[in-house]
């Protein structure tokens, strides 16, 4: 037992030395990280312009800050204390994180952090209740925090040129004021059904993704004017029938997909002025119609839709007539059965029931 205790003490002592050595190495690593970026270029610890902005903010209220293209690698937490800030442009830098303290910018309406090195957004971004324009394009985002749905004042959202595989499920349920949504150049395979509840949406760009289709209720976006789903390549093969309900749609780009037929309701897009159907194996409408332009396509599809409705009406009339005839036959058969039943009962009454006997007739002669 004593031997085991001594061995345990020795192990603790050895472990303590290892921990101390590891701490010393870690300190050296941090020191080197603060001195050298890539063996040659010194890291700028504090940007003089950033310091100047923070000092100025203490003296008077700042509404706009533009630090675009300053090669910033981090943003001081103190930025979250510029309470009167309305617009913050941090695009074209080398930021890897956004400090949680930015949630303190309660009046912020515009935030641009495009073209940085961001791999995630802080959950605290949902506290920016007055944010109207958010641009996080050109980063390394794999997902958006669900809290972004709480930015209910958003009018424009640009998350393009990232690595997004999906969008928050409730995005459309909460962002009812959104008018422009840019989600192109990502890895999206589908759009959440809730996106169809964005009744204010006018612009939707989802090109260059991996979309397998559009939500079935896409037609509820009655204010949509521009829709771009080009270059989803082999993944996008068909479109929902409700596409024809986008009555305010003016521009539609479906190029570079595998669509073989436009939905029969396509001819109802009365306001459509620009249409791109290139690089699709289209059968309906045929290529010669597509080459004549958007009006020819709409006319062809409108006629096809009218013919389809006429055929359905014809089939419906046939069914109605058949039901009527079957109904007459059924009524006639029922009447005949009733008549036969009545006659049968009458005859049975005469023949089958014996009345009282006459004793004179029964008397033997």
From TrEMBL:
Record flagged with keyword Ribonucleoprotein: no
Domain of life: Eukaryota
One GO cellular component term: cytoplasm
Ranges of residues in domain PARP alpha-helical: 1-119
Coiled-coil region list: none
Database matches in SMART domains: LRR_BAC, LRR_SD22, LRR_TYP
Keyword set, alphabetical order: Coiled coil, Leucine-rich repeat, Repeat
InterPro entries to which the protein is assigned, alphabetical: Leu-rich_rpt (IPR001611), Leu-rich_rpt_typical-subtyp (IPR003591), LRR_dom_sf (IPR032675), LRR_domain-containing (IPR050216), Poly(ADP-ribose)pol_reg_dom (IPR004102)
BP terms from Gene Ontology: microgametogenesis
Family named by the database record: Belongs to the SHOC2 family.
Name by which UniProt lists this protein: PARP alpha-helical domain-containing protein
Top-level taxonomy: Eukaryota, Viridiplantae, Streptophyta, Embryophyta, Tracheophyta
């Amino acid at each position: 037992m004593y031997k085991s205790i001594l061995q345990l003490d020795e192990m603790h002592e050895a472990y303590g030395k290892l921990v101390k050595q590891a701490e010393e190495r870690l300190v050296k690593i941090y020191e080197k990280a603060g001195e050298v970026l890539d063996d040659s270029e010194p890291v700028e610890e504090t940007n003089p312009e950033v310091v100047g902005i923070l000092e100025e903010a203490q003296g008077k209220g700042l509404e706009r800050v533009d630090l675009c293209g300053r090669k910033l690698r981090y943003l001081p937490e103190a930025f979250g204390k510029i309470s009167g800030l309305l617009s913050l442009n941090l695009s074209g830098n080398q930021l890897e994180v956004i400090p949680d303290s930015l949630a303190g910018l309660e009046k912020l309406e515009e935030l641009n952090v495009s073209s940085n090195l961001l791999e995630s957004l802080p959950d605290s971004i949902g506290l920016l209740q007055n944010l109207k324009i958010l641009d996080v394009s050109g980063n390394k985002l794999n997902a958006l925090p669900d809290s972004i749905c709480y930015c209910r004042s958003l009018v424009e959202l640009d998350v393009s040129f990232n690595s997004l595989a999906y969008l928050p499920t409730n995005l459309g349920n909460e962002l009812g004021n959104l008018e422009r949504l840019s989600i192109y150049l990502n890895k999206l395979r589908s759009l959440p059904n809730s996106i169809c509840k964005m009744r204010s949406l006018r612009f939707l760009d989802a090109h260059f993704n991996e979309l397998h289709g559009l939500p079935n209720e896409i037609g509820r976006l009655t204010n949509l004017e521009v829709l771009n789903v080009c270059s989803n390549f082999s993944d996008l093969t068909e479109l929902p029938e409700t596409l024809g309900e986008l009555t305010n749609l003016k521009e539609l780009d479906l190029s570079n997909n595998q669509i073989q037929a436009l939905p029969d309701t396509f001819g109802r897009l009365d306001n459509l002025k620009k249409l791109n159907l290139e690089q699709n194996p289209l059968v309906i409408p045929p290529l010669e119609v597509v080459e004549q332009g958007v009006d020819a396509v709409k006319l062809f599809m409108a006629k096809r839709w009218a013919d389809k409705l006429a055929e359905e009406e014809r089939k419906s009339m046939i069914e109605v007539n058949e039901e009527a005839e079957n109904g007459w036959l059924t009524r006639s058969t029922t009447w005949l059965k009733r008549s036969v039943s009545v006659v049968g009962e009458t005859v049975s009454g005469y023949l089958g029931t014996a009345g009282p006997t006459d004793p004179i007739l029964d008397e033997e002669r």
